[in-house]
Amino acid sequence: MHLNSIGETINHEILEQTEWEFESDYSEPGFNDENFLGNQGPNSPAWVNKYANYELLDSDDSSEGDTANSLHLGWKHRLVVIVTASIVLWLLGKYLSFLIGDFQYVEHIDISGFYNDGNIQELGCENMRQTGHISAQRSIPLHDNITQIASALASHPMVHLNEKKVSVPGKVNPNRWTQFAGAGVWLPEYNVYLVVSRVVYTRPGVSWPTISFLRGQLFDEDWNHLEKHTIEWYGTKMYFPMVFEIPAVWWEEGGFFGPEDPRIILDEGVQGAEPLIVFNMISNGAGSPRAMWIHKPFSNFTTILTIRNEERRPEEKNWAPFFHNKPSAGKRTGTNEYLHFVYSLRPLQVLSCMIRTGECDWVFRQEVPDALAEWHGDTRGEMRGGTNFVPIPIDGHLDIQTYIGLPRTHLNFCKAGATYRPEITVLSGFESKFHIAYASVATEFGHTLLDKDLLSNPCTKGNILIPSSIARWVYNSREDMMAVSFSIADENIHILRLYGVLSFIRSLPYYSRFLKLDNPHHDDASRNFRWSVVGNEVIACSVEAAANSSRADSILAEMGELSKALEQIRI
C-alpha cells in the first residue's frame, strides 16, 4: 500500500487554490464568484468580456483590431502566469515533501518466515513456511551535535593524550567522532523517549575505535529532540542531553575501550522503575576480557555480569535482554530483581542475572539430538542478538509467555565485509523452558530504511543494518504501532515505525497449534522438547534463507566488479 506523502497532498491543494486565486484577482465589481462559476464555459460572453475589459484598461487604442489582439495577449498572459505558478508550486511541493512529507510515506511489507508447528516427524523449511504482511513508515533519522559532544569529552585523558600530539590546544576536530547504535525506550511517567547511543573517538592515524562513550538524549512522542530538558527521579535531577559517567579501563596505545553496543530496557508497569542500560566493555580482569555490564542511568550504578561457576570467556557480547515474570506473580508493586537474556539463538540459551550483584545463572540450555538436526549447508554465519525482547499479549493464556524481538544475522559472503540484516523473531517461554516460535527471513523493510543506493549495494555501502531496540509498542483497538531503532552503516540512528505487528503475530499457525494441542499444565520439560527441536530448525531455516540471499548478492557484486575491470581493459 503506497500512500501519498503530505508534501504531494499540500502541493495539490495549494495548486487548486492558487488557480482560483488567479481567476478571482481579475474580478471586477459586479462580476461575482457565483455568476463566474455558473454554467458559463471559457468561450462564454462573461469570460470574453471579463478579459477583454481587463486588457483594454491598459490599451491606448480601442480599435476593434487592437481589442482582438489585446484579448489574445490576455489569454497568453494568463497561461504564462498559471504555468509559471504551477511549476513553482510543484517544486515547492517536492521540497516540502523532502523536508517533512517524506516521513509520511508508508509501505506495504510482505514478510516471509518459518513457524514452529511442533512436528518433529516432518522437519523441513518449506513445511514451516508462513507469509504475511505488515506496514512500515519512512524512518526518522535522529540527530545530535557531534561538535558539542567532542568539546564536552575533549578533557577525557584518553582523548586529551592523543589530541595534544596533533591539534592546537583547545581546538576540537569533530571528524574523529562518530555516533551510532542508538537504543531507545519510552518512559511513560515522563512522556519522553530516552535514547542511548554509542559515541566513538578514533585517534589520528588509525581506523579502529580508540574509546567509546554512551550519550543520552530525550525525544518527545513525535521524535523531536528535547534540548536542555530536565527530568527528576526520586529527588535526583538529570539534565539532557548528557554523557553517562561509566568507569572504563584504558591504556596508552590501546583501543576498543569503553562501553559498546548499548541496549536499554524498562520494567514496564512498575511505578518509578529505572531503565537499565546493557552494554559490553573491556574489563580490567586477567587478559582484559570483554564482558557484559548493566548501568542504571538515574542512580549511576554500574556492575559487571558474571556467569557463576564458569571461567570468564575472552569475549561476551550480543546478549538480548528481556523481563521474564512468573505468571503466578500477579500484579507487581516492586521492580524486578532479575533480568533475563537470550544468550544465543542456536542453540537457544537463556540466562537470568541478578541486577544488584550481576551474578548470572543458566535458566535454559537447549539440547537437540544430532539425528533431529537438519543439515543446512555452509551459511558462513549465524543469528545473533539485536534488540530487546518485549512481551506479546495472548488472550486467555496467562501461563504462557511469548516475546518478540529483532535479532540479526551476521554473514560473511561478501568480500568487502560482513553483512548484517534483521529478522523478526518470536520466543516462547513457560517457567524455565523456552523455544523459538517463529523467525522471519532477513528483511530490509522495503524502501523505508535504506535508500536506493544502499539497497543496490548490499555487499558494500549497504551491508550494515542492525536493529538496536524496540523502543515502544502501542497496541489497542485503534492502534498497533511498534517503534524500532536501527543503526545504518555504523554511522547514524534511524527510528522505524511498524504497523500491524500484533495482527501479524496472532495470525501465525503456531498459536493455534501450541495453545490448543498442548496442555500447559503438563510436565513442561517433556512438553517443550518437540517444540524446542522444531524451534531450532526454525532458526536454521531463517539463517539459511539469509545466507542464500547474501550469497546471491556477493555473486552479483563480483560480476559487477568483473564487468568494470573488463571495461577498463577495453579503454
Automatic annotation (TrEMBL):
Keyword Transmembrane in record: yes
Membrane topology listed for this record: Single-pass type II membrane protein
Organism: Byssochlamys spectabilis
Gene Ontology MF terms in the entry: mannosyltransferase activity
Family: Belongs to the BMT family.
One GO CC term on file: membrane
Superkingdom of this protein's organism: Eukaryota
Record-linked InterPro entries: BMT1
Name of the featured protein: Uncharacterized protein
Subcellular location: Membrane
Transmembrane segments: 79-100
Keywords noted in UniProt: Membrane, Signal-anchor, Transmembrane, Transmembrane helix
Key word S-adenosyl-L-methionine present: no
Pfam families from the UniProt entry: BMT
